[in-house]
Amino acid sequence: xxxxxxxxxxxxxxxxxxxxxxxxxxxxxxxxGLRDGRPAALLRRRDQHPDLGRWALPGGFVGPAEDLDAAAxxxxxxxAGLPGAHLEQLxxxxxxxxxxxxxxxxxxxxxxxxxxxxxxxxxxxPDLVPAGVTGPLPERPDGAVSVTSPKGEPLGLAFDHGDILxxxxxxxxxxxxxxxxxxxxxxxxxxxRQLQDVHEAILCTTLNKSAFRRRMLDAGRLAPTxxxxxxxxxxxxxxxxxxxxx
Amino acid sequence: xxxxxxxxxxxxxxxxxxxxxxxxxxxxxxxxGLRDGRPAALLRRRDQHPDLGRWALPGGFVGPAEDLDAAAxxxxxxxAGLPGAHLEQLxxxxxxxxxxxxxxxxxxxxxxxxxxxxxxxxxxxPDLVPAGVTGPLPERPDGAVSVTSPKGEPLGLAFDHGDILxxxxxxxxxxxxxxxxxxxxxxxxxxxRQLQDVHEAILCTTLNKSAFRRRMLDAGRLAPTxxxxxxxxxxxxxxxxxxxxx
DNA sequence: TAAATAGTGTCTTTTAGACACTATCGC
DNA sequence: GCGATAGTGTCTAAAAGACACTATTTA
Lengths: 246, 246
Fold this sequence. Notes:
homodimer, alpha+beta, 8-stranded mixed β-sheet, 3-stranded antiparallel β-sheet, 11 strands, 30% helix, DNA-binding
């Protein structure tokens, strides 16, 4: 029987990994944050063919001895110079013709940056541009996003990166209500009003204040700090912290 | 300037794809259905090292000129002999040591089979075994699944396939309420009671009959056929069909 | 005290659960 | 009519929206 012919160690010693087709695998990152209260993504202008002049998500090849999540974290720190951001796998794009150079399968990740991290990334990587992201409209959730330069001009995205960006926004919207991704876009301590502003910006709606506060406080994911914001010319709001999930 | 030196066509003609690290890429399928009203997955016993004797998800390598979705559909029809099943990408698993033979990145897909397709797959591929899947418990959604043979004996899964299976169940549960994945586990025409049974089996709960009917009918995803089920010895229920999403 | 925003109370509307009730089929 | 399940009506409980109201700070 085959089963008894080798031990697993012997089997592995004789195994020839060269016999299989291989593909280039990359990670691409949607670096998403809020800029002036509006969703924005960090993009890089392509200075080479193909899709020269179009705008692309930062990304990089996955090393042969590198976990996917590690590759995403490496690209995040290379491009944005920050370790602490929320990072989650989005989806894997593997259409044969998605890159005309060769077959490249890319695992897309969503990275959420708070305002400070977003600004830090811009300093750390001067080739990144904060592009405004609008849509897909909540009532047409499978639509496309429109991406604009800081001056408001529309930007064309390279490859299938528009699809990736649209998926990132949809994912963020879908998880906003029941997960703690919303906190990732805020500093460590924040007011309930700031949290509501974030939700409204992501969902493209206005929310009811008292209902929002009720839901957030009842959900038990917020810990009051006792401290209050400083520097206001009016009644300062209480500062909360995201409670570590169990 | 680099930009003007070549056209895109010239650039591509000179491009050398050999310069990048590559990885073996596979798709693995969670073939999920209901057997006697309980969740079950189709698994294959490994007859080779590594993990000889453990139970694995059906899968296959992604061809060099094959889209990811096409590879998943191919494996589905090879292993289960059916084209029409619901198929969606789940997650990509790429830990360096997930397979001791070599670096293999696998894109996991969830395939939902109705009772007929499930039985058909068992006939088409006699090496597949319908394994009962229980858990993760709804109150511990990030727990592990336990997998049992048709006789009720626990089965050990190969590689990280237990994680993949658990993720599949969680995804199915999460989408059951707002999407139409529930319909994929039923024949084309079904009664509301059958639909409720499916939901209860997947969610591991009991649901309120009148509230369930209200929700389903109000959601507008059901189309009445006018026909009624046949062969009952009591009042036959109305048959519905899933309405095509816009 | 005026301005501005934080935070609360409460009424209404909607949605979900509980559960008994009626309806309809084969026999 | 009986047995069994389909399907409905209605009460209650919980959650969400509307919106006015009170509270607290700086200037």
